[in-house]
Amino acid sequence: MLWSDPENNPPKDMRDMQAKMRRAGFVLALAMVIAMFVLGLH
């Protein structure tokens, strides 16, 4: 963070985007674990 940045209050669309990215990352990680598990069974 730069000193010139405003205090931590990003606009709403930015917060929504971050929440979506976090959810997408979680789903992707879960899918990878499931894929590894399935591939490991064969």
TrEMBL record:
Keywords: Membrane, Transmembrane, Transmembrane helix. The chain crosses the membrane at residues 24-41. InterPro entries: MmpB-like. It comes from the Bacteria. Pfam families: MmpB. This is Uncharacterized protein. It comes from Streptomyces huasconensis.
